[in-house]
Amino acid sequence: MTSDFSRRHFLLTSAAAGLVPFALGLPAARAAAGGTVTLRLGDDLSNLDPAYRVGTVEGNILRAVCQQLARFKPGSLDWEPDAAKTITQNSDTEIEFELNPGQMFHGGYGEMTAEDVKFSFERFTKPDKTGAMVPYADDFAALDHVEVTGTYTGKLILKNPAPAIWTIGICDASGTILSKKAFEALGDKVATQAIGTGPYLFKEWKAREHVILAANPDYKGADTAPFAELTLKPIVENRTALLALMAGEVALTETDVTAEDELAKAKANGIETLKIDGIDYTWIAINVQKGPLADLKVRQAIRLGIDVQSILEGAYGGKVGRANALLAPALLGYWADAPVYNRDPAAAKALLAEAGQTGISLTFTCLNDAISQATAQIVQANLAEIGITLTINAIDPGAYWAMGSGDASKDLDLTLIPYTSKFDPGFQTQWFVSAQVGVWNWQRWKNAEFDTLHKEAGSTLDKAVRQEKYVRMQQLLDESASCVWITHGAHLFGYAKTLKPVMLPDGTDWQLRDFAPA
Amino acid sequence: MRGFAGRIWRERGGRTGVLLVALVLFIALILPFATPDPNKIDVPARFLPPSLHHPLGTDNLGRDLLARVTVGTRSALWIACVVIALSMAGGLALGVIAALSGRLVDRLVTGFCDIVSAFPSYILVFSLVALYGAGLGKLVVAIALAFLPQFARITRSQALTLRHRPFIESARLMGLPATTIIRRHVLPNIVGPVIVLASMNIPSVITTEAAMSFIGLGVQPPQTSLGTLIRDGYVFLDQSWWPIIGAVAVLAIATLGCTLLGEALRDVVDPKLRREP
Questions:
Q1: Cβ–Cβ below 8 Å for B237 and A381
Q2: Integer angstrom CA distances of residue A423 from A12, A158, A476, A477, B29
Q3: Quick one: pLDDT band at residue A204, thresholds 50, 70, 90?
Q4: How many CB atoms lie within 10 A of CB A73?
Q5: ipTM of the predicted structure?
Q6: Does A184 touch chain B (CB under 8 A)?
Q7: Which DSSP category does A165 fall into?
Q8: Which residues of chain A neighbour B134 with C-beta distances below 8 Å?
Q9: Which of A403, A497, A468 shows the shortest CA–CA distance to A442?
Q10: CB contact (8 A) between residue B134 and residue A394
Q11: Which residues does chain A have within 8 Å of residue B38's beta carbon, measured at their own beta carbons?
């Protein structure tokens, strides 16, 4: 018997079969109670030790696997006790806690006690075995020691009043409580194996394939895991991840903000959209120590010469809001009345003339991603119109971030900088103090009043006083004309309508333990 | 048509190759005179669809895509020509030196070629650019280095076959200097296969440059290349699909045209390599 089913027929039939699901509309992934849900991770894990974690990916997993004394309420910056039955601030420098009894560490490592809290927190205050402080030491910089007063009770004794310890220490991933016993038994394996008491336990990590978190049957808290398993799949590229969402392969992914319209069109296929305004900040830093940029009028001219609105439209697709100061609206210290500098080439030229500066040639340094390069080209065109020649130096992330050491920033002119934020404004202002010149203060701007205010605002608990001080700090930055603020960014998520994702207001911190079926 | 060009034109592949290469040359050399400033930013006009005013539409910064494609094509061809010229010159020099010098020099040259060839060309170029930094000049040198061993090897093997030929021996017995023998007798007899190799390598150079620019290690903004155009189009694919089309089409036409022309050239220069129908 012969067949007339040729290779061409085979290809046509295969192609038609492959297109059927697209023609019918791809189903979104389903997230059912007690089932398994697959979520996309932006990157693979690197290190699960809270003190050495690399990014938010590890932090998000740690907060689902481990408990903290207190945790952020779902989607909010208010906090509530977690592993602690009670936690109270007795004075400016003393926080007292009592743990819930019977909170068992995964893997048979016993019950959580105050000794575990002391061990977990004091790691941040002492040099490690290499003699260096852990990378996240600043999160507990104000902690002097933890005093254990009973099996379940203890006190955090601070060196100075430190409001930030709540938001960037206790409630963040640095505040996750480890098992001292497990840590000592596992040694270096703590980097790849998280042992906690949280609603999920760390079941499996296959590098570049998946991370599986399984419901913890021993979890005693009220918020038991709604899913039997969370599978977290690392997909580095946003567009690939978006296609995976559309194909029902993952139930949630973050994607580029420019994909907002595309996600909206997918609503009919059961895809919902969540957009969260960011608290990060991207700005153009002007080196106040470099040649003509040392002249305030030149810096003011550059600020007036740059069309920020065009940058938002052209580079960000008009999908993010404009930043007018350092701190985002969601944060304490937000400067609502910050001046908005709209492009005014005539005024910019007049300022350059007043400064007696002509024929200025500068370098614009930025990362080599598409958004940064689009921004650079707009700035280049803008400044050309006021007589400033700009050469773009787009470099890869490794070389770019290496400029944070060895005083490499002294050679920069204009630099497009994207920094991430935390919930305490002091985390953001710390990079602008005089001591950071040569490290992360690439404007190389020094101001004694700013330095003093940073110190004062970071050691008072009075929110009103802090608000006033942070606003004044931003006014000083504004007067220096050393920064052209671009955006606080935004985070866009697509997710299956059967899933209810929960994120903190920065959009980068996922509260995986609160994810539930919709 | 008779002669060399006629033999290429009579081949179906050669004819197609000539037409496609002519089209690419038209895009790169003639069309820029009829298009607006490729770097003129007009953000309100971003992502305009193809129209009479903007035949390929506009990109994310409102720049005319046809103008940018023409400049990108010119840039790709210019880079390909410079890279091929550099690697061919270097390869010819090394190959002739290896073939006509002593055994030690020959082993050194072949050893160098073996080491360079041991790395896949993309990996080698990527490593060199990562090591010495991005930029057009560095990229050109890196790609030229990656392609150099092919030219050195073919030159060496051709020169070795000529080394003991009577006319070379005669020239040597007449006391002609080595440089004269090379210039008058060796190079003219080996240049044919080298030119064929050069034409066959042009598509590879174009795609290598496009790949490096695609990942941000090649041509830097505001200059453009086919690779940067494809990358920008890819990044904003969710907002408009047309920015990617022009650059991809030209890249496909250029590589296909150069490949077909190179094959036709090879068949004409060396009929022994002609494929059976």
A1: no
A2: 55, 20, 21, 20, 55
A3: very high
A4: 15
A5: 0.70
A6: no
A7: I
A8: 368, 394-396
A9: A403
A10: yes
A11: none
CATH superfamily to which A279-488 belongs: Dipeptide-binding Protein; Domain 3 (3.10.105.10)
Kindly identify which residue of chain B lies nearest to residue A237, measuring between CA atoms: B235
Chain A residues inside the 8 Å CB shell of B221: 373, 376-377, 392, 394
Q: Which of A203, A271, A222, A216 is nearest to A242 (CA)?
A: A271
A259 contacts in B (CB within 8 Å)? 238
Among B193, B196, B189, B195, which residue's Cα sits nearest to residue B263? Answer: B196
Residues from chain B contacting residue A378 (CB–CB below 8 Å): 41, 43, 61
Domain positions in chain A: 67-179, 279-488
Cβ(A143)–Cβ(A122) below 8 Å = yes
**May I ask the CATH class of domain A67-179?**
alpha beta
Could A399 and B133 be called an inter-chain contact, meaning their C-beta atoms sit closer than 8 Å?
yes
CA nearest neighbour of B31 among B250, B211, B243, B223 = B250
- At residue A1, the pLDDT reads 41
The number of beta carbons lying within 10 Å of the beta carbon of residue A196 is: 31
Domain coordinates in residue numbering, chain B: 2-33+61-269
Coil vs helix vs strand at A87: strand
- pTM: predicted TM-score of the whole model, two decimal places: 0.77
Contact A364, A414 (CB under 8 A): yes
With an 8 Å Cβ cutoff, are A394 and B234 in contact?
Answer: no
At A209-254, the pLDDT tens digits run 999 999 999 998 888 999 999 999 999 888 889 999 999 999 999 9
- Specify the pLDDT at position B273: 54
| Interface contact A380, partner B, CB < 8 A | yes
Report the pLDDT averaged over residues B93-116: 90
* Domain A67-179 and domain A279-488 have a common topology: no
CB A33 within 8 A of CB A135: no
A143: left (phi over 0), alpha (psi -120 to 50) or beta: beta
Instruction: Please report the pLDDT score of residue B277 as a whole number.
Output: 44
> Which CATH number is B2-33+61-269's, of 3.10.150.10, 3.40.50.2300, 3.40.190.10, 1.10.3720.10?
1.10.3720.10
